[in-house]
Amino acid sequence: MDERCFHCGRALDGSETHALVVDGVPRPMCCGGCEAAARLIHAQGLERYYAFRDGATPPADPAARDWTLFDRDAALRRYSHLRADGRREASLRIDGMHCAACGWLIENSVRALEGVVDVQVNPSGARAELTWDPRRIALSRVLGNVHRLGYLPRLRGFAGGADDGSEERRTALKRLGVAGFAMMQVMTYAVALYAGAFDGIEPDIERLLRFVSLLVTTPVVLYSAQPFFAGAWRTLRARTLGMDVPVALSIAAAWAWSVWTTLRGHGAVYFDSVVMFTFFLLVGRYVEAALRQASGRERDAWARLLPDGVTRITAETEERITPDELTAGDRVRVLPGERIPADGVILSGRTEVDESLLTGESAPQLRAPGDPLIAGTLNTSGSLEMRVNRAGQDSTLAAAARLLERAQASRPRIADAADRVAAWFVGGVLLIAVCVAVYWLRHDAARAFPAVLAVLVVTCPCALSLATPAALAAATTRLARSGLLVTRGRAIETLARVQHVIFDKTGTLTRGVPRIDELRILSRHATPERCLAIAAALERRSEHPVARAFAAIDPAPDVSDVTTEPGRGVEGRAGGVLYRIGRADYVQDIAEIGPAGRVVPDDDARTTLILGDTSGPLAAFFLADRLREDAPAALQALRALGLETSIASGDRAAVVARVARRLDGIDARAGASAQDKLALVRALQARGRVVAMVGDGVNDAPVLAGADVSVAIGSGTDLAKVSADLVMPGAGLAPLAHGIEIARRTLRIVRENLAWAVLYNTVAVPLAASGRLAPWMAALGMSCSSLLVVANALRLLRAQREPASASLARDEVTQT
Amino acid sequence: MSILYLLIPLGLVLLAFSVWAFFWAVRSGQFDDLDTPAVQILLDDDRAPPERRDA
Fold first, then answer.
1. Which fold has domain A484-510+628-739?
2. Which of A3, A350, A381, A533 sits CB 3.0–4.6 Å from A556 for a disulfide?
């Protein structure tokens, strides 16, 4: 049981048939996909990938894909750019890269292909720039090669502009750089000015230093601090008070005052505080933005749910095109097992459509001519002809994704308000400033402004600015190591305060893949082996979700004439006998003797499939979703942390009850719509509970926006990652409890840091103000204080004994 | 102390140059990927690169 797949590291149960001899040792593989990937890596002499990779490689996709679609002229024009020398350039997005070694592997493997001129892979941005010679190699071969390595390449429209946030990131970096350089410079001037204030300084030199400081600080205020002013303006216009308001206020006021005293020639200047404050705040923001990018957010993630290719029916012929090329009014053929490429209406054909992605309804829906179809849903059984009404950006899928983004974008304000530590601090500072202003206006109006400013600026020193971002950055790294990716820094603070966890789908606690739970033989003439083999052979032709339960069983070789009846079942011949599998009445239809005596069982909590021949039903398969192995332990851990748990599922009551029973009677609500779930969240919040939502979050935009913190499970869809605050990339649930523990420790460290910073300031500020502190002592004290805060935050990174469950969870990466 | 009238403007020139150099580095993508190059040096082939690499 200790064996693991050589390529993806998944635990093997010994039944696998795939293996590859590497270095003379046969290495077991979990599936054909991993075997193909390992074989290719081996053939190209790139085995060092295995030595240098970091973390678990996801299992390679064993399905063959047709990439030749991208070799057509129309597609080449759309996705690539023809250079003067006849070569083409394209920009790819590559999913599945998780470390620098992946980038190395793809680069070297693709570069070895004859005809590829250059390829540059950027794993942190999941991007690649490819230059190739179309006369010597087809684009499809390059794409196929990347896919065989276990990654998923996606072409990005060349004309559409590759907007992936890298430009924003560069701008942020430039702002940070300007502030950093300016800070170094201004601090040296400040030290000279401080020293001069104590030991005497020539007035001319003092003036020069002040003017130079002004010169260096101004670009920082006008350029680097611009996001704070923009943010403050935005929140003020929305008639709220965000964190940016006091920040913008103190930067603007300190700068304006310093400019005024510089021009006037006497009074204190605060240029050093302005640049330092700006710099440290920008560092915090930059770290957060980088994390968001690293967690795999991307625009247009929804497009991944569209099929690779579409069959367009034109007057004369049928052609395969990419879904991007579809326009409203096109006629399209959709085969069983394909995803619907665009919103539209069925022209002919009947099928069952799996819409679980958008509606949460797990049972496929029967659709007939005239019925609407939604882009991204799965055509499970019949062949269809449809007319496209809305494609691409106009589709329901794109709209749903945008809705999610908007729901998310409106949240940071609420999250900021909930950010009690910072809010408390800012409020306190503003309150003290007002008191000081009132006091000085009564006693000595001329000194009121400098005094108020001193209070505002005193809150700037590094220790305070670093207290929260340093701890959050350390915690984020730590959480990522234990299998929980943070997509927004503030989520950690909320996570620490969570009191109630709601699992928004049964599929979160279960594997989401049906398994044969029980096989009951109904006829004396049937053997379990034969029934299983025939059922597997019949279901192999079906794309219905239940067919996956039979995927691991060897099919009977002698089955032929298989046809699918949407919504009812599958029939076929084996050894001259007609067999049917599916709903009981469908199977009974071919029974020659009628429903004679054999009782067809039924079970509310499980899906029942009947296999029968002309003599009547032979066997009943009870299919059920298996509980995740670590679900009971994970829930136990959450309860041990004092959290309450519940399930709010859209599934049928019997199904949910079955899961709940096996989790020691967790509070469960079945048949809940998105509105019901939102009501549940709101009711809990009304009782003062902080609610976390765990799920795949595609159909529940309002629920996710309503919960205080949302967690997406990695085996869910990509869309969920766009919306969730946290993502668990493994399929296990164990990281959640561990993550909450880390978040709590983080909050404790933030509090310690803030307490220290406040203590330091309350002691140091009056001392410095009364002139009892030499400049070098103040400088030393300040540096030590900052270092202490950072060191305290770094304690979070110290590897503690990792709960075995957390590392186990990483190996549980299942295919979806 | 009049040397300061030379040294401080000189410092400003250096500052301007650093900012310009930094902007150039950011624009040319030097900071876009900070993870790969670190590993690249460990992984890269000691052997001569394969014959292709057409001019």
1. Rossmann fold (3.40.50)
2. A533
Angle at A358 between CA A353 and CA A361, to 5 degrees: 65
Chain A residues with CB-CB distance to B11 below 8 A:
185
pLDDT tens digits, one per residue of A69-109? 888 888 888 788 888 888 888 888 887 777 777 888 888 88
Q: Strand A709-713 relative to strand A372-373: parallel, antiparallel, unpaired?
A: unpaired
> Catalytic annotation on A54?
no
Domain A68-155 adopts which CATH fold? Answer: Alpha-Beta Plaits (3.30.70)
What kind of architecture, by CATH, is found in domain A1-60? Roll (2.30)
- Lay out the sheet containing A351-354: strands in order across: A365-367, A351-354, A378-379
Determine whether the interchain pair A173/B31 forms a contact, defined as Cβ–Cβ distance below 8 Å. yes
The shortest CB-CB distance from A181 to any of B8, B18, B31 is to: B18
CA distances from A53 to A58, B42, B46 (A): 12, 11, 19
Query: What is A302-403's CATH topology?
Result: 2.70.150
The dihedral sign for the CA sequence A103, A108, A111, A112: negative
A2 interface with B at CB cutoff 8 Å:
no
Q: What is the number of residues in chain B?
A: 55
Q: Return d(Cα A745, Cα A725) in angstroms, integer.
A: 19
**Tens of pLDDT, residues A505-520:** 666 777 767 788 888 8
Q: Does A43 touch chain B (CB under 8 A)?
A: no
Q: Which residues in chain B have Cβ-Cβ distances shorter than 8 Å to A166?
A: 32
Residue A73, Cβ neighbours under 10 Å: how many?
Answer: 8
**B32 interaction partners in chain A (CB closer than 8 Å):** 122, 124-125, 166, 169-170
Phi first, then psi: what are they for A695, rounded to 5°?
Answer: 180, -165
Task: Give this complex's ipTM.
Answer: 0.82
Question: Residue type for A373, please?
Answer: L
